[in-house]
Write a structure and sequence with these properties.
Elements: H1 4-14, E1 17-27, H2 28-39, E2 45-49, E3 57-69, E4 72-83, E5 85-87, E6 90-92, E7 95-109, E8 112-122, H3 127-143, E9 145-146, H4 148-156, E10 167-179, E11 183-194
Antiparallel strand pairs: 1-11, 2-3, 3-4, 4-7, 5-6, 7-8, 8-9, 10-11
Length: 195
């Protein structure tokens, strides 16, 4: 008589496991690391204008922190910018430094979590800050993506030492995403084939 463990493995090997409504919580520290690697690669800065080589005409964000509020992702960062002309070795023109808050709706598309409906809030208001907000909204929506499908594939298809079977992930999708105060919560649907 076969023991229960081999029978279970045999059943898994011939029957694909269809998982619906699986909940995964992604801590904001993981998203913060992904954001820092992708959107803030230049010494922890995301340049929205110019580069670190231009000392008079630049704008960047730094020190991002990621959290959640009322179903949205919340990113807080520090903005520093200058729109000046170099004259006799001096930068003549306006510049500013201030904290800002970015609110975005997380969306799942083509295997990635991306930012949609990006809005930037600043304590100050004016022509300069309006242009800053518009530039950040456009750049951040394009720059940030988290490949949740790749991570799920890596985790669920990982072969452990001594295992004689293999797993294959298929039909992976995120049916819903919600942001809570503690984490980004994903409802997953996928098929796991065990061979």
């Amino acid at each position: 008589m076969l023991s229960p463990v081999p029978i279970l493995l045999l059943l898994l090997a011939i029957t694909p496991l269809r998982a619906t409504g699986v909940e995964v919580q992604i801590q904001y520290s993981v998203l913060q690391k992904a954001l820092a690697q992708q959107a803030f690669p230049q010494s922890g800065r995301m340049y929205v204008k110019g580069s670190q080589d231009n000392k008079c005409n630049f704008a960047y964000l730094e020190n991002p922190t990621v959290g959640g509020m009322e179903g949205h992702l919340e990113i807080k960062a520090r903005f520093t910018g200058k729109s000046a002309t170099s004259l006799f070795g001096f930068c003549l023109g306006p510049g500013d430094t201030f904290d800002l808050r970015i609110i975005a709706v997380p969306q799942f598309h083509n295997g990635m979590i991306r930012l949609d409906s990006v809005e930037v809030e600043t304590a100050k208001d004016g022509f300069y800050t309006k242009r800053v907000r518009e530039s950040i909204q456009e750049k951040l929506a394009k720059k940030f993506e988290y490949n949740v499908t790749e991570d799920a594939k890596r985790i669920l298809e990982r072969k452990l030492p001594g295992e004689t079977f293999q797993q294959q992930l298929r039909d992976f999708k995120v049916s819903s995403i919600r942001a809570t105060a503690e984490a980004l919560i994903l409802q997953l649907e996928f098929t796991l084939i065990v061979r």
